[in-house]
Amino acid sequence: MNTITLTDRKNAAISRGVGMTTQIYADRAENAEIWDKEGRRYIDFAAGIAVLNTGHRHPRVIAAVKDQLDHFTHTCHQVVPYESYVHLAERLNALAPGSFAKKTIFVTTGAEAVENAVKIARAATGRSAVIAFGGGFHGRTFMGMALTGKVVPYKVGFGAMPGDVFHVPFPVEMHGVSTEQSLAALKRLFAADVDPQRVAAIIIEPVQGEGGFYPAPVAFMKALRELCDQHGILLIADEVQTGFARTGKMFAMNHHEVAPDLMTMAKSLAGGFPLAAVTGRAEVMDAPGPGGLGGTYGGNPLGIAAAHAVLDVIKDEDLCNWANQLGSRLKQRLESLRDKVPEIADIRGPGFMNAIEFNDKVTNLPSADFANKVRLIALEKGLILLTCGVHANVIRFLAPITIQDNIFVEALDILETSILQASAGN
């Protein structure tokens, strides 16, 4: 079955609303490599959009899931609970930032985790309003869309969003928004649009994902914590994309001196199996009544087993340290291209959550065309890349942290060649 035939079948059978970055149809995968149905091999710098920090089919993850298959695959924890669910909650409570008692719930997707975090915040505060940031991404459910700070493609055509959601600019110095300006926008919001005493939560990605891999400044996160404490607002850290060693620490919030009240997790939590979580202050997490939280598949035993293995791998293979080393090498290679590639506007990101941003070399405006050109050239050479950003002019790097050194070097060579080739033809 060739790719053209499969694409025709896909177009006939699947809604066009399910976008596809590539026309690669996976046949098998191992660590940082994918082979398609035609036998072509690719280096995977997308990792299922940050899901595979421990790589495709890590042997310990696969072994844990196989062992769970021999016991049971589903009971619904709300009907017949199981110890592994309890133990994983205990582990996340201990790992999450903050020196206070915590509790956890498990759900299935990142969007579902965000929805539940908002529910919990509203139940705990008795308030309804939520503040999010421009450029942020929090999912494709209705509350997720409302919180997301980007219209195209996430909100177009879906009608009115849930109310009592407000947005302020995220601090990105290179795009003219300082920490002071973002905080001033929050204060203007409180003065003009919503009483802070009606705000249940402020939700923020410590490093924006879809928005362009912009890290939140340390001073901004500290000021945000102080502002929340002043007004009795809960701070929600969306760590769906940033969690589990990606930024060089277990969670991106570990880079900050303050802790969130609630934290959402998903993606790399279970190494490719669907699992998400909300972890937060025990008294806040206990605000909803019994039955107010949960879901039929939440905390599926296979995902729970995989997550235990993922946490073991992160610790035993020292992945936080590896993320810092790999990210440093990647950024050094990209920095070496600055003098040759005038389109490079910025290179950034903590740990191995890195990005390169491109502007047009004549107008100095964000260039989505150039970023996409680099992506397509690299894809032709066998390297899978993803773009992101409000202006779609950013390439983000999400390779498995477990990537073998020779594969990493090969990928860097392809990346460099692709950027140079795109610039030469621009």
Automatic annotation (TrEMBL):
Listed cofactors: pyridoxal 5'-phosphate
Matches recorded under Pfam families: Aminotran_3
Record flagged with keyword S-adenosyl-L-methionine: no
Coiled coil (UniProt feature): none
PANTHER family on file: ACETYLORNITHINE AMINOTRANSFERASE, MITOCHONDRIAL, AMINOTRANSFERASE CLASS III
Annotated family: Belongs to the class-III pyridoxal-phosphate-dependent aminotransferase family.
Protein name: 4-aminobutyrate aminotransferase
